[in-house]
Design brief:
By secondary structure, this protein is of the alpha/beta class. It is built from 19 helices and 16 strands. The protein starts with 5 loop residues before the first strand and ends with a helix.
Length: 450
């Protein structure tokens, strides 16, 4: 584990406590000590520790009882058991109860350092696995910022300037413009790039579970809390925490988020431990937060804390010069992913891509190119291969030659046809349109569809 670890030593022998503290403190760790099991449990209730070193043989509450209580409260906790009464039976029982490893007294400073390093590395790996599982559920766009237009060059320059700082950043732009992509670029340009980047989709989380997702919860804190859970703040510790669609969080959560930004500490739902966190906050929104502040649906003090540096992403229709570059990037990407060998996009098809207004922006363009790669029968994508909402660009182009429609009418028709194509399945419809479910729900309500 890189960096400083917070370690608790629970042992009734003062000499053993002092020895562990001195040895592990020299390695840059923060080490605290408790002289019995009861005192150790009280400290664990107040504070979060990366590692616990626990003596098995103590007066009063035994080490095995303390171990069972620790693992009951937090199954993911990392515990090394030490004892001067080493037997195979006690070692097996401790490890079966959840101890990481077992070390008999007396032991050398080097042997202690070795086992502690292994335990901390295992803990870091466990946290990375939790983070990986959550990231596998997410859908990401390209891993680089693509664009040669003046507006995107300005965005890239700003990212390079603010990336190395630790300031909070608010990224604004329509759905699908690549706000998370820019947030990840900021993280890559920062001193935190070796630490986690954790994304929170504020638009998809249920309100009554939001606090648990952010701060974690302890076992038994509510009906479905069958085990202690890491929150996003813990997972992102040392790295960057990205809140997508921050305008969707309630006033209640806004207040708690503001407190975390001020105090740099959290408490799990149902718990009393104070957990120190060190994260950089980057947020994004497709809403007008200043308007929300005026309407008192978003806290003014939180808005100013989050928008120290604002970055605005232009919609794709305002940077049409980037469309060929993006389209060819996605062509290469999905050639590899779909094991295809599409060599190019025809001039007519590219012209159709450039002229289209892209209400779903880059995300919609990516989906369109992916569909074309899958559906194309030749090694060049033609305009007939570009299926928007079940109809070809070519067909729409011909229809526009003979009649003029308002953009809202075209969009209403597109959405209705797509919804029909997917038999009313809103999730598949949103994905095909290149927009998120919340945006689709808003549009369906606006147009009276479904």
């Amino acid at each position: 584990m890189k960096g400083q670890a917070n370690i608790l030593v629970i042992d009734d022998e003062e000499s053993m406590r002092d020895s562990c503290q001195q040895t592990l403190s020299r390695d840059g760790n923060l080490v605290k000590a408790a002289e019995n099991g009861s005192e150790g449990l009280i400290m664990l209730a107040r504070e979060s520790f990366d590692l616990i070193i626990l003596d098995l043989k103590m007066p009063g509450l035994s080490g095995m009882e303390v171990l069972k209580k620790i693992k009951e409260d937090d199954p993911e906790s990392m515990v090394i058991v030490i004892t001067g009464y080493a037997t195979v039976e006690s070692a097996v029982e401790a490890i079966k109860t959840g101890a990481f490893d077992f070390i008999p007294k007396p032991f050398t400073p080097d042997s202690l350092r070795t086992i502690v390093r292994r335990a901390l590395d295992r803990r870091e790996l466990a946290l990375e696995n939790v983070l990986l599982r959550s990231e596998l559920k997410a859908s990401f766009g390209p891993d680089v910022i693509i664009g040669q237009s003046k507006s995107m060059k300005k965005v890239e320059e700003l990212v390079q300037k603010v990336g190395p700082t630790d300031t909070t950043i608010l990224i604004s732009g329509e759905s699908g413009t690549g706000k998370e992509l820019v947030a990840r670029a900021i993280h890559r340009h920062s001193s935190r790039k070796g630490k986690p980047f954790v994304a929170v989709d504020c638009g998809s989380l249920v309100e009554n579970l939001f606090e648990s997702e952010l701060f974690g919860h302890v076992k038994g804190s509510f009906t479905s809390a069958t085990a202690t859970k890491y929150g996003r703040f813990e997972l992102a510790n040392g790295g960057t925490l990205f809140f997508d669609e921050i305008g969707n969080i309630s006033i209640n959560i806004q207040t708690k988020l503001l407190r975390v930004l001020q105090e740099r500490e959290i408490t799990k739902v149902g718990g009393s431990q104070v957990i120190k966190v060190d994260v950089r906050i980057v947020t994004a929104t497709n809403n007008d937060l200043q308007k929300a502040v005026k309407e008192e649906t978003f806290r003014e003090d939180l808005f100013y804390r989050l928008s120290v540096v604002p970055i605005t992403l232009p919609p794709l229709r305002e940077r049409r010069d980037d469309i060929p570059l993006l389209a060819n990037y996605f062509l290469k990407k999905y050639n590899l992913k779909r094991k295809k060998n599409i060599k190019a996009i025809s001039d007519q098809a590219m012209k159709a891509l450039v002229e289209y207004n892209w209400p779903g922006n880059v995300r919609e363009l990516e989906n369109a190119v992916e569909r074309a790669v899958v559906l194309a029968e030749n090694d060049v994508i033609k305009s007939s291969d570009l299926l928007y909402y079940g109809l070809s660009v070519e067909a729409y182009s011909r229809s526009y030659m003979y009649k003029t429609q308002r953009l809202v009418d075209v969009e209403r028709e597109y959405i209705a046809k797509t919804l029909e194509m997917f038999s009313g399945h809103k999730g598949k419809t949103a994905k095909a349109l290149g927009i998120d479910r919340k945006t689709l729900r808003v549009k369906l309500k606006r147009y009276g569809i479904g």
